[in-house]
Amino acid sequence: MTRNTDLFQRDREWHPPALTRDYKTSVTRSPRYALLSLQSSASEITGPTFGHSDIDPLDNDLLANYAKTGAPIGERIIVHGRVLDENGRPVPNTLVEIWQANAGGRYRHKNDSYLAPIDPNFGGCGRTLTDDNGFYVFRTVKPGAYPWRNWVNNWRPAHIHVSVFGTGFAQRLITQMYFEGDPLIAKCPIVNTIPDPRAIDQLVAALDLNATVPLDSIAYKFDIVLRGQRSTFFENRPEGN
After folding, report:
1. 232 near 82, Cβ under 8 Å?
2. Per residue in 28-51, pLDDT tens?
3. Which of 11, 20, 123, 173 has a Cα-to-Cα distance from 235 of 20 to 30 A?
């Protein structure tokens, strides 16, 4: 049974409104009626979970898991961090998935018509389980920025989509990770729907030279906090997992 203490009320000043004028897509996607809060059912908070037998050793290595004729094109990077609860405790054995555009800013998807070429050696997706201390790591290439049809000249900053699963298939949180120093972050209409700059900062992965592999890959650190006052902003469940 779910206890009242398990729930965190959504902070309306921390998260963006559903309807935001400068984010044109929100005009048709935002609800027109008052939102309803529904208690999770037993089927949503329990059920099968992912195990190590579901993960291939190359699933977290986007430099190799789709390569056919060579290495992917682009800046080689490492993305690593921890999945934590609101008290800073690690969340072990949690499935973390990522997907992204290639170094030219194009997704491997039939609906992506951006003129950047598709990289034949880059699939753009991976997954891994956190270890006993909540750690996860991926090898990949830094995604490129790409234009999108919001206003005349809007560009999405380089970003990686991140998905975190809970203790059942119906528990899933999705967010986006940006990169420290990218000037497009401050100009992105989607990012700017978030009213508090502190929340935006928590979506930006910090350059981590200590984890960088010399002559190989630059590292970025991105911790994911599931709930509490410093929770990472999630697109689908702002109140946390």
Report:
1. no
2. 888 888 877 777 777 666 666 677
3. 123
Count the domains in the chain.
Answer: 1
Residue 177 resides in a domain: yes
Residues with active-site annotation: 107, 146, 156, 159, 161
End-to-end CA distance of the chain: 15
Give the E-state strand segments of the chain in sequence order. 76-84, 95-100, 125-129, 135-141, 146-148, 154-156, 159-165, 172-179, 204-207, 218-221, 224-225
**Which of 61, 66, 88 has the alpha carbon at shortest distance from 76?**
61
To the question of pTM greater than 0.90 for the whole model, the response is no
Give me the DSSP letters along 173-211.
EEEEEEETT-TTGGG-TTGGG---HHHHHTTEEEE-TTT
Over the stretch 150-181, which tens digit does the pLDDT of each residue have? 988 999 999 999 999 887 767 888 999 999 99
- Domain of residue 159, CATH code: 2.60.130.10
Interacting residues of 28 by C-beta distance below 8 A, sequence separation 6+: none
Q: Of 225, 220, 224, which Cα lies nearest the Cα of 206?
A: 220
Q: How far apart are CA 167 and CA 197, in angstroms?
A: 31
Q: What tokens does 133 get?
A: 């201390």
Q: Which range of residues forms the domain containing residue 80?
A: 24-30+40-231
Q: List, in order, residues 6 or more apart from 10 with CB less than 8 Å away.
A: 238, 239
Give yes or no for residue 22 having a pLDDT over 90.
Answer: no
Please tell me the distance from the alpha carbon of residue 8 to that of residue 231, in angstroms, as a whole number.
Answer: 11
Whether residue 105 has pLDDT greater than 60: yes
Given a contact cutoff of 8 angstroms between Cβ atoms, the answer to whether 214 and 184 are in contact is no
**Residue 12 lies inside a defined structural domain of this protein:** no
